[in-house]
Amino acid sequence: KRTHRIPPGQSQTTKWPVLDASGTPPIDLAKWRLDVFGLVEREISLTWEDFSALPTVEVFSDFHCVTRWSRLDNTWRGVATRTLLEMAGVKPEAKFVLLHAYDYGWTTNLPLADFLSDDALI
Q1: How many CB atoms lie under 10 A from the CB of residue 81?
Q2: Predicted structure pTM score
Q3: Comparing 21 with 88, which gets the higher pLDDT?
Q4: Per-residue pLDDT reduced to its tens digit, 14-70
Q5: On the CB side of 91, how many CA atoms lie within 13 Å of its CA?
Q6: Would you say 52 and 95 are in contact if contact means Cβ atoms under 8 Å apart?
Q7: SS3 labels along the chain
């Protein structure tokens, strides 16, 4: 309920611009995996079927893209990140998450604290 919801330099849109630097990657759901490992009590490896069977939550939020557009008032449905973190038993000394994505070697690292909010989805 903030009054200034669009960051400086962003423009509001009601569409979903599709911007993809390398094209949409082909994804074989029979080979799809989500692995959680590292500073955890239990490493987990989920197939698409396993992941799809997890409970989902609904989140209402704005979306701000790095390409300078914002879309307000979105409803998202997905698996809460907290669910995966609890399944794996993240150790107290873990401070960051390193994400590896399927599409052409994409990676990023984020503070673990970003994943602990109630509205963080996978």
Answers
A1: 20
A2: 0.78
A3: 88
A4: 998 877 777 777 889 999 999 999 999 999 999 999 999 999 999 998 999 888 999
A5: 10
A6: no
A7: CCCCCCCCCCEECCCCCCCCCCCCCCCCCCCCEEEECCCECCCEEEEHHHHHCCCCEEEEEEEECCCCEEEEEEEEEECEHHHHHHHHCECCCCCEEEEECCCCCCEEEEEHHHHCCCCCEC
